[in-house]
Amino acid sequence: MRSLVYHTVFVSAEKRSRNKGSISERQNTVVCSFDPKSPGITALDIHEWIFEQLHVPENVVTMVQLEGTCRQVYIKFTDFQYLQDLLHSTTGQSEYKHENGEISQVNIEMAGIGTRRVMLANLPPETPDETVSFAFSQYGKINEMQRQIWSKTYRYKVFDGVRIAVITLTKHIPSHVMVAGHRSRKSEVGEWWRIALNQSRW
């Protein structure tokens, strides 16, 4: 049985105070967006996929961040050149082969400021789209706003409570934003999906 080892990094009170309220842009980082219809994947499998499929050496990576809610993986490199090399070698696309033999597509792109599609959750349907757009306009230009509908797989093909916005960012959006008294959860995604989470799979 393999065990997980966590390392804790301590940040001084002075640095925490200096950084309070700021939102830093990701640098030297790619985001891998997994197929929304793919089976669950363990964290260990993700690490091995990065090494074996993307051919990324261990010594050029400073962070691997898993965002289960968004079905995304962020990979931060020690240098921008390694990021460019990966985007060039993959042309922004890769595959993941699951244990059952199924192959799913993975989109790879540079993470950072730009035009993004974001998922806005935890808002009641009574909240007007105009109110949501106004709340998020401080982070950039809202180009489009849609209400996500349950797919044909489900009985009730109605609004599922999630807004999808296309935003040209001028600064990063925090993970939670207050909208008309409600704490909206934000996720940046390349495609939209729902997943069931447990301790080992996402």
Write the layout of secondary structure elements.
Blueprint: H1 13-19, E1 29-34, H2 43-52, E2 61-67, E3 72-77, H3 80-90, E4 93-97, E5 103-110, E6 115-121, H4 129-136, E7 140-149, E8 159-169, E9 176-179, E10 182-189
Antiparallel strand pairs: 1-3, 1-5, 2-3, 4-5, 6-8, 6-10, 7-8, 9-10
Fold and architecture overview:
The chain is α+β, with helices and mostly antiparallel strands and 202 residues long. The protein has two domains: 25-110, 2-Layer Sandwich (Alpha-Beta Plaits), CATH 3.30.70; 115-189, 2-Layer Sandwich (Alpha-Beta Plaits), CATH 3.30.70.330. The protein has helices spanning 13-19, 43-52, 80-90, 129-136, and strands spanning 29-34, 61-67, 72-77, 93-97, 103-110, 115-121, 140-149, 159-169, 176-179, 182-189. The chain has a five-stranded antiparallel beta sheet with strand order 2-3-1-5-4, covered by helices on one side. A five-stranded antiparallel beta sheet has the order 7-8-6-10-9, with helices on one face. The model is unreliable at 17-23 and 190-201 (pLDDT under 50).
Total number of domains: 2
Strand fraction = 35-45%
Structural class label: alpha+beta
Kindly state the number of beta strands.
10
Which shape, going by the Cα principal axes?
Answer: globular
Sheet of most strands = 5 strands, antiparallel
> What's the CATH topology label of the largest domain?
Alpha-Beta Plaits
CATH architecture of the largest domain: 2-Layer Sandwich
